[in-house]
Amino acid sequence: MQLPKALPDESLYSRICRFLSVCEYSTEQALGLLAGDSRAAIHPYLTSNLGSLAQSTGESSKALLSCQTLRPLFSNYLPNYRNVIEDVAASTNEVIRASQLSTFREKETLSVKYCPVCAKNDLHEYGVAYWHLNHQIPGVEACSAHRTWLVHQELPGRCHVCCHFLPSSETIPIHCTDVATEFSYFAAQRVLVLQALSQDESRAVLSTDYQNQLGLSGFLTASGRVRRKIILEGLYELSEGLFLSPTHLSVRSRLDFSFVSTFLSGQYPQHPFKHLLFEFFLSRCRTFTGVKDESLSTRTAINREKQCCDLLKLGLSMAAVSREVGKSRCYVKSVALRNNIPVNLKPRKITKGIKASVIQLALKGFHGDVIAKKHHISSGSVEQIISTTTGLVERRKQCKAESLRRRYRCQIVRFINLNPNVSRQEIKRAQEAAYYWLYNHEYAWLETVLPAASKTQHVDRVDWYQRDNELVDVIRELLLSSSNKKSRTELDKALGGHGWLTSKIAKLPKTRELLRKKGLFGVNTCS
């Protein structure tokens, strides 16, 4: 007794349903022969009893687990229970308990899903509609191939299988949102990667991994705190577009901060859907601030550039490559130029000869605007050619530094020659830009041409006793010579406005006494 051969992306659960539809046994008899238990419950995506089922397929139990169930997805995101989930001998109850589905806050009613368009196409191509494994991924509600919402089908009875329990090709498809399609494709690709990994190659998903990715995307503050409000806002908007109607898997609200906090803490097991949603969110983000991990960012850039090159060599247009890698056409064009990959550009203005001429002039240090004007092209095109030519940017930086060095040296020397008795401070004020550039980059040379620094002039301390005796006589004469009575402030201004009679009067006792006698200094004045 053999199960039908697996069709593309068919789940093990679907093969059992197809077998029940063509065999001559009752459901209980068939389950007894296939699973060794007539009362066995067949889970749609966490199928167990693989040892018994493998005998009816001619395939290894490991292959069934990896390629026809979603147990690799759960084992990857639940590392503490990996041994049980990846155990081919584990019973259904053991696998269900290890998957933690009953403990998650985010629950969904167990059902089996299908795409009406896929069902119709499968019936036409293979003669039977079947359950696709990728459609059963928790949280996936759309078919990425046909951009339609998946239809939920209630499971039959306790054993979850019965004769002729297959997708209907008569259901009318409903067009889904773009974000639901993108998430469906993302989740399917993620499952493919996890299926390809062996148990030794797979590793635990740690909260520190997500922290690093958040830092690269700018979702960490300078002190390392998570920007929960921005993240939750993005997750909520994504969640709103992933489902036809609200479900228990959806983010509850824009203020559901526990959705993010418990996930990033790494203390509790989380539903695989939350991991997929969070990874999908990060994949759509663009870095704006935050700490950079140089090795990771460099490696990511290299992989993206290699992907661009491969797609361009396949003959894809720049627009198609831009959509595929999620970068601008300008980025794709720069990668093509840097790797000497010919691209069909309209208009075809920048020929190989023009490019060679631009590089030659750029090597000589000509300004970008001058080069652009000479060849009647934009300055942006000139800068792109320069930036994609190996070593040219560094060469032009060196030329610019040498040009500044010559110009500023000439300015300083000419100014000193025209003003032989000029001081350092006067040179600094008159030639500020040249002075500071040479001070930072050519300090030794600058010291050789500047005039000798003038010595600091010593200013003797004020003899306030002598100053007091002098002021008494001067003030007495001012008071006698004036017909009008002057105030202290007016007298101080007449003395030169040094503040002697105001702020410094406490240091001049004789002067103070004279002012008091003349009625210019009150008895209770504290100055």
Automatic annotation (TrEMBL):
Q: Which residues form the TniQ domain?
A: 4-149
Indicate the segments forming the Transposon Tn7 transposition protein TnsD C-terminal domain, all copies: 202-515
Domain of life, per UniProt, equals: Bacteria
In Swiss-Prot or TrEMBL terms, this protein is called TnsD family transposase
Q: Which organism is it from?
A: Vibrio anguillarum (Listonella anguillarum)
